[in-house]
Amino acid sequence: MPIRTSSAVWSGDLKGGAGTVALGSGAFEGPYTFVSRFEDGSGTNPEELIAAAHAGCFSMFLANVLAGAGFTADSVRTSAAVTLGAGPAITGIALTVEAAVPNIEADAFAGHVETAKAGCPVSAALSAVPITVDATLV
C-alpha cells in the first residue's frame, strides 16, 4: 500500500505568524493562520483538512460495505464537522451522511453505517475522539 504525504511550513509566532499546508499529490496548497484556525478568518486549518479526509474515507468505506452486502449506492455524501475545543483539543467529530441506495431497507442500511463507522480507517485513526454518525437514506 502507498504512503501518503503532506507538508506544512509555519513562520512567526502563534498569533502573528502564518503558514502554508500542501498535499503531497499537489491537489491542494493553501494558507493557514491563527485566525483561520481559532477564529473565522480566510484560509484553511488542520481541523478542516481532517474533516475532508474523514468525509472522503467514510463515503468510500460505506459504499464498499454496501457493495459487499449486494447493494450499489447511487451516491454516498458525507460531511464532517470537527469541533476544536479548549486546550486546544479536538473534542468531537460529527459525520452527516446522505445515501441513495436502491432496494435497501432502513434497518439494514443503519447496520451497514455502523459497520462502516467501526471499519473506516480514518475513523479508526481518530478513535480517541467521540465520533457520531447521522445517516439518512435519500
Number of strands: 6
Q: What best-fitting shape do the alpha-carbon axes yield?
A: elongated
Please identify the structural class as seen in this structure.
alpha+beta
Number of helices: 4
Q: Which percent band covers the strand fraction?
A: 25-35%
What distinguishing features does this structure have?
138 residues, alpha+beta, 4 helices, elongated
List the helices and strands and how they pair.
Layout: E1 6-11, E2 18-23, E3 29-33, H1 34-38, H2 46-68, E4 75-85, E5 89-100, H3 106-119, H4 121-125, E6 131-137
Parallel strand pairs: 5-6
Antiparallel strand pairs: 1-2, 2-3, 4-5
Helix pairs in contact: 2-3
How does this model look, in words?
It is a single chain. By secondary structure, this protein is of the alpha+beta class. The chain has four helices and six strands, in the order E-E-E-H-H-E-E-H-H-E. It has helices at 34-38, 46-68, 106-119, 121-125, and strands at residues 6-11, 18-23, 29-33, 75-85, 89-100, 131-137. The strands form two sheets. It has a three-stranded antiparallel β-sheet with strand order 1-2-3. Strands 4-5-6 form a three-stranded mixed β-sheet, covered by helices on one side. A hairpin with a 3-residue loop joins strand 4 (75-85) and strand 5 (89-100). Helix 2 (46-68) crosses helix 3. The chain is elongated and about 55 Å long.
